[in-house]
Amino acid sequence: MKIRHVFGGLLVAAVVASTAACGGTSSGDNGNGGAKTVTIYSADGLADWYKPEFTKFTQQTGITVNYVEAGSSEVVSRIEKEKSNPQADILVTLPPFIQKAGADGLLQAYTPQGADQIAAADKDANGHWTALINNYSCFIYNNGTTAPKTWQDLLSPALKGKLQYSTPGQAGDGTAVLILLEHEMGKPAALDYLKQLQANNVGPSSSTGKLQPKVSTG
């Protein structure tokens, strides 16, 4: 079975609920009721895209951006721990973690500009989250290495201790790969495949972003 390089997941953005707080606020204030800082908790891997956008936003509005990144599950856990005193204004993470945040009452309804142009399947019916970008499953390999063409290729003994992926159920990308495998193989076969793949895995990783430095250094 060939590896499919595209997975139709979505990064989604939501407004963090502040109604649970007793006077807690995530935004600095200029004394006139105007926010001077907006805090964003985001799944990692988007900093290069965010940086110029944040700069333009600050130039246009005078509002600075406080940016915090971590794994997809980790940013939701952080918001959950801060529920009594929210520190974030906006949450950006992947399914299914955004749906869990909504179900746990961590989000509040908000309709961003242009939301009417987004397909109903890509936004929450209650306005708790809206799709931001498409997400793709990508595989990176070293120069001089033969690129794996099938899922079976990744089970090769030659890759023992040389392969790593973010952990399904904890990281958004790892979870997306699990869902992709379930679509292609069926759930029992997908779980059996990941069990076999563990033999080559370097170890768990809470986010894909933590793997980037390892790729950079070979």
What is the structure about, briefly put?
With 218 residues, the chain is of the alpha/beta class. The chain has helices at residues 47-61, 72-81, 97-103, 172-185, 187-197, 212-216; strands spanning 9-16, 37-43, 64-70, 90-93, 107-108, 130-135.
What secondary-structure arrangement, pairings included, does this model have?
Layout: E1 9-16, E2 37-43, H1 47-61, E3 64-70, H2 72-81, E4 90-93, H3 97-103, E5 107-108, E6 130-135, H4 172-185, H5 187-197, H6 212-216
Parallel strand pairs: 2-3, 2-4
Antiparallel strand pairs: 1-4, 1-5, 1-6
Could you estimate the helical fraction of the residues in percent? 25-40%
Q: What is the strand content? A: 15-25%
Segments where pLDDT lies below 50 for 5+ residues? 2-9, 19-26
CATH fold field value of the largest domain:
D-Maltodextrin-Binding Protein, domain 2
Overall average pLDDT: 82
Distance between the termini: 28 Å
CATH superfamily of the largest domain: Periplasmic binding protein-like II
SSE topology string: EEHEHEHEEHHH
Domain module count: 2
The tally of strands reads: 6
CATH class of the largest domain: Alpha Beta
| Structural class by secondary-structure content | alpha/beta
Describe this structure as you would to a colleague.
- This protein has 218 residues and is an alpha/beta fold.
- The protein has two domains: 9-135, D-Maltodextrin-Binding Protein, domain 2 (3-Layer(aba) Sandwich), CATH 3.40.190; 152-216, Periplasmic binding protein-like II (D-Maltodextrin-Binding Protein, domain 2, 3-Layer(aba) Sandwich), CATH 3.40.190.
- It has six helices and six strands; from the N terminus they run E-E-H-E-H-E-H-E-E-H-H-H.
- Strands 1, 2, 3, 4, 5 and 6 form a six-stranded mixed beta sheet that branches.
- Strand 2, helix 1 and strand 3 form a beta-alpha-beta unit.
- Helix 2 (72-81) packs parallel to helix 3 and helix 4 crosses helix 5 (187-197).
- The model is unreliable at 2-9 and 19-26 (pLDDT under 50).
